[in-house]
């Protein structure tokens, strides 16, 4: 089961990392629009549409990747102090009761929403150029499918935790410096960690 879970993680990681490059395009579009609007006094006719489509693409297609890393915002002021098995039970109940019904509704409604947009050859009403929006709307059911499979991966992790008493390791990724320090504190203790940080010139 763990190998299947990691396969889902890897697929969503690749997709998320590819579409994370949308941030470069988004930065370019916003920079261009600011220059055109405030320096050239000639705002573009497509900048607004392009910027929110790029942001939406980044937000949606990186969602499953973020879930695979446990990076979504959560109110974990109590959760973090629970033993692993209690966390797994709590997560499992929430995935079954709320996550999967919500995601299936997203896929179902999103497909109808995108299909209607395609049939109408819908364009944006927010700018004069009226960029096509139906390709963007098809990202809604695609995102739902990605999140559904990532949810399966998370459920597998919960089941493994309940069997072994510990969370299985996630695929390692870039981490914030504070996370690295906290992990080092747990491994070495606060005094030794502070000495190491002083040697590195961080503390």
TrEMBL record:
It is found in: Cell inner membrane. InterPro entries: DctQ, TRAP_DctQ. Residues 26-158 form the Tripartite ATP-independent periplasmic transporters DctQ component domain. The keyword DNA-binding does not apply. The complex comprises the extracytoplasmic solute receptor protein and the two transmembrane proteins. This is TRAP transporter small permease protein. The chain crosses the membrane at residues 12-32, 52-71, 92-111, 131-149. It comes from Terrihabitans soli. Part of the tripartite ATP-independent periplasmic (TRAP) transport system. It comes from the Bacteria. It is a multi-pass membrane protein. One of its GO terms (molecular function) is transmembrane transporter activity. Belongs to the TRAP transporter small permease family. Its main location: membrane. It holds the Pfam family DctQ. Keywords: Cell inner membrane, Cell membrane, Membrane, Transmembrane, Transmembrane helix, Transport. GO terms for cellular component: plasma membrane.
């Amino acid at each position: 089961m763990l190998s299947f879970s990691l396969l889902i993680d890897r697929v969503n990681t690749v997709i998320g990392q590819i579409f994370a490059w949308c941030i470069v395009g988004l930065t370019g579009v916003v920079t261009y629009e600011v220059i055109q609007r405030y320096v050239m006094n000639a705002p573009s006719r497509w900048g607004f549409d392009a910027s929110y489509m790029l942001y939406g693409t980044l937000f949606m297609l990186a969602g499953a990747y973020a879930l695979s890393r446990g990076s979504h915002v959560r109110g974990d002021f109590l959760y973090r102090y629970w033993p692993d098995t209690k966390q797994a039970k709590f997560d499992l109940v929430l995935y079954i009761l709320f996550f999967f019904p919500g995601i299936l509704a997203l896929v179902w409604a999103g497909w109808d929403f995108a299909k209607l947009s395609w049939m109408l050859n819908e364009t944006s009403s927010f700018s004069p150029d009226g960029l096509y929006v139906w390709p963007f709307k098809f990202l809604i059911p695609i995102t739902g499918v990605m999140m559904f499979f990532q949810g399966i991966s998370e459920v597998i992790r919960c089941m493994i935790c309940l069997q072994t008493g510990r969370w299985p390791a996630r695929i390692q990724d870039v981490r914030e410096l504070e996370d690295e320090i906290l992990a080092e504190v747990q491994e070495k203790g606060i005094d030794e960690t502070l000495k190491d940080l002083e040697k590195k010139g961080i503390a």
